Amino acid sequence: MRAEELAASDVGSRAVPLARVVRGGVVESVHAGHVVVLAPDGSVRFALGDPDVTIWARSSLKPLQAVAMLRSGLDVAGERLALVCASHNAEDGHLEVVRQLLADAGLAEDALQNTPDWPLDADAAWQRRADGYGRASLTQNCSGKHAGMVATCVAAGWPTATYLEPSHPLQVAVRGTIAELTGAPVEHVTVDGCGAPLFSTTLAGLARAFGALAGAGASGDLGPQGRVARAMAQHPWCVAGTGRDATAFMQAVPGLVAKDGADGVYAAGLPDGSAVAFKVADGSARPRPVVLAAALMAAGVDPALVGTVGRVPVLGHGEPVGDVVATFGPGAAVPDQAGGPDRSRP
What we know:
This protein is an alpha+beta fold. It contains 13 helices and 12 strands.
């Protein structure tokens, strides 16, 4: 990639501070990035940095991938569909549902081609080691998505052995669905950490897609978008798991559809069709709950619902000595604007 092309796609080039780490009353570090809040009609209600920045949405794309699977013949609902959208902890309940997805399609665990890994949940990972097991595709956090992909192939009559190839009919359908729902052309393709093809989008496009999903779910729409939204909102534990912020936010806000992604990405849609999305430029997960809470408040969510869920204390000797704080939202200072426009409303 040429230098001018790299500069145009660099998420750090127009990033602005989104959160500050305050320890003992002193700002210790700053997380910069981009955030956008869309109104129900899709217009920009609030933005910092560049809402049109091109990003790898990582696992935040899973609900959109699930829509493509349903359109292609996958017929699942409830916990099973929520697991298809998940970056799960690999707790026992998660693994049971993934096994059910495979069994319903007449497949065994060896049909999964996602990268073997330990469970995200520390206790589950410890227990797996204690039981003498190693990394496995089943226990990697994307196994629900991959189980959904191979099950879709069975339903559609497509080959399962090559389902990770970008030219496979499933991945062609996924790419088309992402472009359609985000309203942004897919300009880049690479490989995600789990081995599946990863398609680029824009931050505003990602928010637009989540607003459409959540709005469809709230309206009672029986199509793939509404089905995905309801599965996630009704089974938030399946989407992430114990101690995870995506689960906690969906439990706190009725009808919320939220999905985290690696390297500092988050997207969420609300029942009225409004939505938020952000990218932390340094890829850190630390400020994500704080930034998501502030963005949801900017979208009109009652602070009482998300304030506690979005708190990230800074610890000293195991005790709170500060907090990670958003640069925007109720009570926040006016954020630095170097490198990006402030499209906020008063």
